[in-house]
Automatic annotation (TrEMBL):
The chain crosses the membrane at residues 21-41, 53-75, 95-120, 126-148, 160-183, 230-252, 301-319, 325-345, 375-397, 403-425, 446-472, 478-499. It comes from Stackebrandtia albiflava. This is ABC-2 type transport system permease protein. The keyword Transmembrane helix applies. Signal peptide: none annotated.
């Protein structure tokens, strides 16, 4: 079974985009080379600290990486649910297939840098220990990565699990946006770190006692001639490898129970919230969307990740020495409205058929405008609250006006961008009742990138006057603050109204086509429209989704054979 699964994995990889395989291979090679250079050229007195930190970075990278790169190149246990296979045997086989690939090979080569470290400290007798430690560490890291990814998928069935997943996603997004703030002090101190290590600080003890430091402790013990201690550390690594392997194999068994936990109480605000909603079609859509954003684990993951993104943005700013930038945490939450809402119709799956059946101009308009209102409210409240807290913490009271202006304009423009991208680039994901993992709701990288930059571009008038307020100093007249807020309101309202209007017309003209895209993923449809930029963008998004669906069909055919 292991051989067949490995062959299936390589078949899936061959049908993935070639540039992704190339980039992954190049990055893996660079990481391995950097690890070996660190082990060989670090000062002998600092080698343990430096290499331990690098191995810990490998461990963390493996834990976080699968969340970002999961998809067609990962064998999902639910693919094999209906096959008459022993669940434990299947789980072990799926885990074994994970070790066949560039990633695991790169991890092993990086771990073998322990042998280079043994040579640098002139301890040839420790090389066998280094090789064994590298193998055990590789098994631990790869198994732990698969375990974390599987636990993350299982966690989506509970509120606590969604919160854990959102913290992870928020950290990743913040690292991509402002991670340089935390990295720059480390880069500046790199020459000193390579020669002095952590200098006997608490960080040295933390790294040494972390799993990334265990292989080094075994090598150091063997170099000192303490073979009992070396065997003890190798035994600890063996136990860790066994525990993570058993846990990963258990989590890789196909899950056949209920997907989510049944609710036993009425949701917060269900009794009073309906009285605050406007009557009519639009109010019904707003109420439905607010409840969906609150109850659906995948939508809840989006808003919670946005909040954690804002929090980590403030943390990275403080680490990088720009503490007052933490006041922009609420703006970061508001900015995520365009990214998190760029596939609203894809989140709902084929539920769009209800709108197709009741298709009328006023129904389509109410659906789009109601979604706009709901997403602006749902992201706006935490954005304002988080900004208020961060302003108090950082003491950035002089920047309240530009911060409020940015939140207003980003919420308005972002709500318009979200519904427009949701219509133009509707991308099918796994049907809501079949979702397991945190990224099953469907995503389109092209649409997300366009949504981000289009939101920033459409907010430029407010960004310009807010920049003048921020850097203009105390010489600005009193009325300037009111002008900034006025520009923000006009910019936000116009952005929401114009972009939402385009989305209404687009959905009304292409409703059957949009439903077909979600109902029959990968189906070739005749390119329609007037050939404007929206048609080109829609076609590009459709082609990307079609290629993904085609790869999935080929994978299914391969499994059947």
């Amino acid at each position: 079974m292991v051989g067949r699964l490995i062959g299936l994995k390589f078949t899936i990889a061959r049908h993935s985009q070639s540039w992704k395989r190339t980039v992954g291979f190049v990055l893996a090679c660079l990481a391995v080379v950097a690890t070996w250079l660190t082990a060989v050229f670090s000062h002998p007195d600092a080698g343990a600290d430096v290499l331990g930190f690098v191995l810990l970075a490998w461990l963390v990278g493996w834990m976080l990486g699968p969340v970002l790169t999961s998809g067609a190149t990962v064998l999902r246990p639910e693919y094999f649910t209906l096959l008459p296979l022993n669940r434990w045997r299947l789980g072990v086989s799926l885990l074994a297939s994970v070790f066949a690939g560039v990633g695991a090979a790169g991890m092993l080569l990086a771990g073998l840098s322990l042998a280079g470290y043994a040579v640098v400290i002139d301890a040839a007798q420790a090389i066998p220990v280094a090789v064994v430690a590298a193998v055990l560490f590789t098994i631990t890291v790869v198994s732990l990565a698969r375990l974390v990814y599987s636990v993350l998928g299982a966690a989506m069935r509970s509120r606590i699990g969604v919160e854990i997943a959102s913290i992870q996603y928020g950290l990743l997004i913040a690292a991509m946006f402002v991670g340089w703030m935390a990295v720059s002090p480390v880069v500046n101190a790199l020459p000193v770190f390579l020669t002095q290590g952590f200098g006997g600080t608490v960080a040295a003890d933390v790294v040494a006692w972390s799993p990334g430091g265990w292989p080094l402790r075994a090598v150091d013990a063997a170099a000192a001639g303490d073979w009992g201690l070396a065997l003890a550390w190798l035994g600890g690594l063996a136990v860790a490898a066994a525990l993570t392997s058993v846990g990963a194999a258990a989590m890789l068994r196909p899950y056949t129970g209920n997907r989510t936990v049944r609710r036993w109480r009425r949701p917060l605000g269900s009794g009073t919230g309906r009285r605050l909603l406007p009557t009519g079609r639009r109010g019904a859509v707003v109420g439905k969307e607010l409840r969906t954003w609150w109850r659906d684990p995948w939508r809840s993951l989006e808003i919670r990740s946005s909040i954690w993104f804002g929090i980590f943005l403030a943390v990275f700013s403080a680490v990088g020495g720009f503490a007052q930038l933490g006041a922009l945490a609420g703006v970061g939450v508001a900015l995520m409205i365009a990214l998190s809402g760029a596939n609203l119709y894809g989140y709902d799956g084929t539920a769009l058929w209800q709108l197709v059946v009741a298709e009328r101009p006023e129904t389509v308009r109410a659906d789009v405008r109601g979604r706009q209102t709901a997403i602006a409210l749902y992201f706006g409240v935490p954005a304002v609250l988080l900004s208020a807290v961060m302003v108090v913490i950082t003491g950035a009271y002089g920047y309240v006006v530009p911060i409020v202006a940015l939140i207003v304009v980003v919420l308005g423009v972002g709500s318009g961008v979200s519904v427009l991208m949701s219509v133009v680039g509707a991308t099918p994901g796994v049907e809501p009742h079949r979702r397991v993992n945190s990224n099953d709701a469907g995503e389109n990288g092209l649409i997300i990138q366009i949504a981000l930059w289009f939101t920033i571009l459409a907010s430029l008038p407010t960004l310009a006057v807010a920049a003048v307020t921020t850097f203009g100093g105390p010489g600005l007249p009193v009325w300037w603050s009111f002008l900034v807020l006025g520009v923000a309101v006009v910019n936000g309202v116009l952005g929401a109204k114009v972009l939402g209007g385009i989305a209404v017309r687009r959905l009304g003209d292409h409703l059957p086509e949009t439903f077909a895209r979600l109902r029959y993923p990968g189906m070739k449809v005749t390119r329609s429209g007037s050939g404007d930029w929206l048609d080109h963008l829609s076609h590009a998004a459709f082609e990307e989704a079609r290629k993904a669906a085609e790869a999935k069909r080929k994978t299914s055919a391969r499994k059947g054979s």
